[in-house]
Amino acid sequence: MRMAGPPERIVLGLERMRAAMLLLGLSERLPMPVITVAGTNGKGSTVACLETFYRQAGYRVAAYTSPHIWSFNERLRLNGIPAPTSDWDAALKDIAAVAGTLALTFFEITTLAAVKILCAAQVDLAILEVGLGGRLDAVNAFDPDCSVLTTVDLDHQDWLGPDRLSIGREKSGIFRPNVPALYGDAANPCASVLETAAQNQVPLQLLGRDFDFDAQSRRWWGFGQTLAMPKPLWPAAAQWQNLALALATVWFLQTKLPVSEAALSHWSIRPDLPGRAQMLRPWGESGPRLIVDVAHNPQAVAQLATLLAGQGGRCHAVVAMLADKDVAGTLKNLLRCVEVWHVLEITDTPRAASAASLQKCLWEIGAAHVEIEENMQTALDALGAVLTSNDSIVCFGSFHLVKQLPRQWLDGTSV
């Protein structure tokens, strides 16, 4: 099968997707309701909440997300279980046979395969997470019944534009005329998102204006309704906002996929989201806490700093990042929290920032103690032996870094 460059290469545009869909007999309108989720941060947790609410209500749910951490199969979950390798192999073989002459990107091929699999599985609902941006992302080739935009902030500026207004225009490209859309930047809505909705007759509902929540009483309200809320995946303001977005989305689709208040008020199935602000004790109760987060842009790391501020003791950071990120703008958000920095180099992608460049960047923004580590295992072994139960190790910066952790740690019990 021809590919438009290596898997790391990003080539935005819908022309190739539409040509492949025509050859494969895939319509823009899928046979089941579709929720499309975009945003700078919060997509993963919003998808996880939506997926769980509908599963608790008895629906068969497909959730397409990216990137994966350990296994490619993670990119599509069918009722909470990664789609089997045999399904992926069959779908990819079909795409190669029918659309193999098209120079599709890795993400386009993956998206087409995932849609073929979920259609064959005859699920009741497809939740599709945008890979990058929105307007020109492969996922946007399929029409949603509801669009969700979590947040708009600086990330991927090389592809989406230099400022928040440009990025907001790209991300709100998932909106459709007369199709409900929900947006979660309550404190500072992006003007270009509001303009896009107004210009295209999109019934946009805003968190903080049209629906809202109270974390203390665990109540959500909007559209003339009040609901009890379950606890979010972890107690951070952003997670309450993502949960509120998910509840609003479910409410807007009630006529197509009814969900009872009982299925929305508590978790009978725990949402699964490895690598997002997980707080673990891999060295036992006498060892330091390990906080794992794939945060890799300024907004996400600012949220991580809020979580760390509530912890006592010393804090060491283990970090690796991609070179095309805003490295300085991201790392500076943790300067007040972190006592010692341990920098690594990601080895499985040419986009990685070198450990030496990360060390230099940290020195330039004011970090006093920065060490280059040989690998993840040696860094964690050393820290786990000297830090105490009141101390923290925060491991963050990229999906590529988090996947170097033992899988059983992230599958373990949070504390």
From TrEMBL:
InterPro entries: Folylpolyglutamate_synth, Mur-like_cat_sf, Mur_ligase_C, Mur_ligase_C_dom_sf. It catalyses: 7,8-dihydropteroate + L-glutamate + ATP = 7,8-dihydrofolate + ADP + phosphate + H(+); 10-formyltetrahydrofolyl-(gamma-L-Glu)(n) + L-glutamate + ATP = 10-formyltetrahydrofolyl-(gamma-L-Glu)(n+1) + ADP + phosphate + H(+); (6S)-5,6,7,8-tetrahydrofolyl-(gamma-L-Glu)(n) + L-glutamate + ATP = (6S)-5,6,7,8-tetrahydrofolyl-(gamma-L-Glu)(n+1) + ADP + phosphate + H(+); (6R)-5,10-methylenetetrahydrofolyl-(gamma-L-Glu)(n) + L-glutamate + ATP = (6R)-5,10-methylenetetrahydrofolyl-(gamma-L-Glu)(n+1) + ADP + phosphate + H(+). Pathway: Cofactor biosynthesis; tetrahydrofolylpolyglutamate biosynthesis; Cofactor biosynthesis; tetrahydrofolate biosynthesis; 7,8-dihydrofolate from 2-amino-4-hydroxy-6-hydroxymethyl-7,8-dihydropteridine diphosphate and 4-aminobenzoate: step 2/2. The keyword DNA damage does not apply. It comes from the Bacteria. Pfam families: Mur_ligase_C. Keywords: ATP-binding, Folate biosynthesis, Ligase, Magnesium, Metal-binding, Nucleotide-binding. Transmembrane segments: none annotated. Residues 283-399 form the Mur ligase C-terminal domain. Its EC number is 6.3.2.12, 6.3.2.17. Belongs to the folylpolyglutamate synthase family. PANTHER family: DIHYDROFOLATE SYNTHETASE-RELATED, FOLYLPOLYGLUTAMATE SYNTHASE-RELATED. Functions in two distinct reactions of the de novo folate biosynthetic pathway. Catalyzes the addition of a glutamate residue to dihydropteroate (7,8-dihydropteroate or H2Pte) to form dihydrofolate (7,8-dihydrofolate monoglutamate or H2Pte-Glu). Also catalyzes successive additions of L-glutamate to tetrahydrofolate or 10-formyltetrahydrofolate or 5,10-methylenetetrahydrofolate, leading to folylpolyglutamate derivatives. NCBIfam families: folC (TIGR01499). This is Dihydrofolate synthase/folylpolyglutamate synthase. It comes from Acidithiobacillus concretivorus.
